[in-house]
């Protein structure tokens, strides 16, 4: 019994000294487990005299209950402490600023297309669209491009293997949209056709095998070259500024006659900006229009060509490299 009294005296210090639940479990085994003094005394009850057993048994049970109570109280304290620590570690600080995901912006190419489109919408034009995979008729024949023209060679045009056909290609300009639109609509026609085009160009600072164009077409009664000049001068002044100098230089395009290149003077340098001209009567015939009643003009410009001088971009590849240092400059 003296050993039991010693255990009861030392137990509070052992129990209170347990810093966490695993340590308390170890102390509990030391005080109440099979190898403890209590466990040893319980196993020795059978060796006592019959008259001693009730006294010793009652004392032993009282001691065990006292130890269990002390352990249970300490366990409750440690469990509460563990729960507090868990809550602290999982705590969400609502006073911190929320994480805001990065919001993307429209690509500069898209911005320029929309800017040009807005200018012509203000003049009463409508936007027309067509497929990027075309056939030879709409891409060349309907536009008065002869069989011998070098643009029809594979060195210039990307042809597509499609079933048994040999006339399928990636459009080299958005002009096929003009032919398709005229086939489906009677005059008057006032359209612009923005979109992606494809050619077998080398990937360098000024060329890309895929780029963007915006073409325009007007067909109506009594349309002249003067209407073309007035329209494009208005566009240049809206896009580059009202003081921008403009000049038209003679050129050749199969689908317009007469034809011209429009040059603009930017920072003291003349730059070729677009091609244009009066619609060739053969093109009107190809789509079912009466060339004796109707006339028109057409023009085509590269979106990248417009964007580069206006926004100070020296290399066309910057548009397609997905470099955030470039893209973030044009929110």
Descriptors for this entry?
single chain, 331 residues, alpha+beta, BirA Bifunctional Protein, domain 2, 2 domains, 7-stranded mixed β-sheet, two-stranded antiparallel sheet, 11 helices, rod-shaped
What features would you describe in this structure?
By secondary structure, this protein is of the alpha+beta class. It folds into two domains: 2-89; 108-327, Bira Bifunctional Protein, Domain 2 (BirA Bifunctional Protein, domain 2, 2-Layer Sandwich), CATH 3.30.930.10. Helices cover 40% and strands 21% of the residues. The chain has eleven helices and nine strands. The protein has helices at residues 2-16, 21-32, 37-43, 53-89, 108-121, 136-139, 175-184, 225-240, 281-286, 303-311, 324-327; strands at 126-127, 133-135, 168-170, 189-198, 210-220, 245-253, 256-266, 269-279, 295-302. Strands 1-4-5-9-8-7-6 form a seven-stranded mixed sheet, sandwiched between helices. The mean pLDDT is 88.
Query: Alpha-carbon distance between the termini?
Result: 87 Å
Number of domains: 2
From the structure provided, what is the oligomeric state, counting identical versus distinct chains?
A: single chain
CATH topology of the largest domain: BirA Bifunctional Protein, domain 2
Question: What structural class do the secondary elements suggest?
Answer: alpha+beta
According to DSSP, the number of beta strands is 9
* Mean pLDDT over the full residue set: 88
User: Which architecture name of the largest domain does CATH use?
Assistant: 2-Layer Sandwich
The tally of helices reads 11
- Helix share bin: 40-55%
Rg on CA atoms, Å:
44 Å
The run of helices and strands is HHHHHEEHEHEEHEEEHEHH
- Shape summary: rod-shaped
Give the strand line-up of the largest sheet. 1-4-5-9-8-7-6
Query: Major sheet, described briefly?
Result: 7 strands, mixed
Beta fraction? 15-25%
Please name the fourth-level CATH homologous superfamily of the largest domain. Bira Bifunctional Protein, Domain 2
């Amino acid at each position: 019994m003296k050993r039991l009294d010693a255990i009861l005296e030392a137990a509070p210090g052992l129990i209170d000294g347990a810093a966490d639940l695993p340590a308390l479990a170890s102390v509990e085994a030391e005080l109440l487990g099979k190898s403890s003094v209590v466990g040893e005394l319980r196993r020795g009850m059978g060796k006592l005299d019959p008259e001693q057993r009730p006294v010793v048994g009652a004392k032993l049970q009282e001691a065990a209950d006292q130890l269990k109570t002390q352990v249970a109280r300490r366990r409750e304290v440690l469990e509460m402490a563990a729960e507090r620590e868990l809550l602290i570690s999982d705590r969400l600080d609502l006073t911190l600023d929320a994480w805001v995901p990065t919001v993307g912006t429209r690509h500069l190419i898209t911005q320029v297309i929309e800017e040009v489109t807005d200018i012509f919408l203000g003049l009463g034009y409508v936007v027309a669209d067509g497929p990027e995979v075309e056939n030879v008729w709409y891409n060349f024949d309907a536009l008065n491009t002869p069989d011998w023209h070098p643009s029809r060679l594979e060195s210039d045009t990307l042809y597509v293997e499609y079933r048994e056909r040999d006339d399928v290609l990636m459009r080299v300009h958005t002009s096929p949209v003009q032919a398709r639109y005229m086939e489906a609509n009677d005059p008057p026609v006032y359209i612009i056709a923005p979109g992606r085009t494809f050619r077998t160009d080398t990937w360098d600072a000024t060329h890309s095998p895929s780029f963007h164009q915006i073409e325009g077409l007007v067909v109506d009664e009594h349309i002249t070259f003067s209407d073309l000049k007035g329209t494009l001068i208005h566009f240049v002044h809206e896009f580059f500024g009202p003081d921008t100098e403009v000049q038209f230089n003679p050129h050749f395009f199969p689908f317009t006659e007469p034809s011209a290149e429009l040059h603009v003077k930017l920072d003291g340098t003349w730059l070729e900006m677009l091609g244009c001209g009066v619609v060739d009567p053969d093109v009107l015939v190809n789509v079912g229009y009466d060339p004796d009643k109707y006339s028109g003009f057409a023009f085509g410009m590269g979106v990248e060509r417009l964007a580069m001088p206006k926004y100070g971009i020296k290399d066309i590849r910057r548009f397609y490299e997905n470099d955030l240092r470039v893209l973030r400059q044009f929110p």
